[in-house]
Amino acid sequence: MLGIEGNDPIHSIISLKHEVEHNGSIYNIGCDPFYVHYWLPIQEHIIQSKQYNKWKTICVDATGSLVLPIIRTKNKIQSAHIFLYQIITVVDGKTIPISQQLSEKQDMLTIYYWMANWMNTGVTLPDECVSDYSKALLGAITRIFCNRRSLQDYINTCFIYLTGDENQLPECYVRIDVAHMVHIVCRWKCLSLRKPVKDFYVRTIGLLIKLNNIDDFKKTLEIIIVIACSETDGDNVNKLSTPSENARKHLINYISHGDIKMTSEEFNDNSYR
């Protein structure tokens, strides 16, 4: 159909690379392990166009359910799962892909190599990059978009900024997709037995994700820890609310109204003893 003879997918892609129709679209091809980097000239134009000259936000994600493994050798040895990696952005309210990679390896160096080749075409640094919770993907993102910082260095830099010790932020804001974070919490086995408990903690983690003030984050996290580490809640034998009960009520109020009205005296109240 494409004018290619034979059934070797790797050599077929090499042939496509040198066809006039696909000139300037397929960049790097690897055999073992398999990978291919590709993006169209129009995709390069989109990321550099005048319509996309303000706050640049990109999203990077991967899926392993689209490409069949490659059969190698006469013994029909299969390759590992081949993942499709894609960088997307939003222009005029439309989601548009701007770079792709097919890769048999999912380590940080492989992802970094793809992104580095894409950036080498003259693409400007994004202001924000959204990703899932893959450590390899996050490590590649911080190294390519944040002046070769490791993921740990990036986290330390952001924490120092939040605590007020320095006022310099990394070059790119790296953010984990909220849906991926919530999905991770939903899979915690310790929350699988009781749905109301699971629902409560999923909402509290969602609350932490949305907070944009370090003091509110610390206060909320402390309340969650008090609740999680307490064996009981409610009132004690003297009909006084336990610290975990006070914390739970204030946290539910925060989830409902977005405001924690809890003084340090209330939080540290020991009158129940």
Question: Could you characterize the architecture of this molecule?
Answer:
The chain is of the alpha+beta class and 273 residues long. The protein has 10 helices and 9 strands. The chain has helices at 9-17, 41-48, 108-119, 135-145, 151-162, 178-186, 195-210, 214-229, 243-257, 264-267; strands spanning 26-30, 35-38, 57-67, 71-72, 77-78, 82-91, 94-103, 128-131, 173-176. A 7-stranded mixed sheet has the order 1-2-7-6-3-8-9, with helices on both faces. Strands 4-5 form a two-stranded antiparallel sheet. Strand 6 (82-91) and strand 7 (94-103) form a beta hairpin. The longest helix has 16 residues, at 195-210. The radius of gyration is 25 Å and the shape is elongated. The termini are far apart. 19% of the residues are buried.
Mean pLDDT: 84
- Binned, the helix content reads 40-55%
What's the main sheet like? Answer: 7 strands, mixed
Record the strand order, biggest sheet.
1-2-7-6-3-8-9
Number of strands: 9
Radius of gyration: 25 Å
- End-to-end CA span: 80 Å
- Could you tell me the strand content as a percent range? 15-25%
The sequence of SSEs as H and E is HEEHEEEEEHEHHEHHHHH
SS-based structural class?
A: alpha+beta
Total helices: the number is 10
Low-confidence stretches: 259-273
Shape summary: elongated
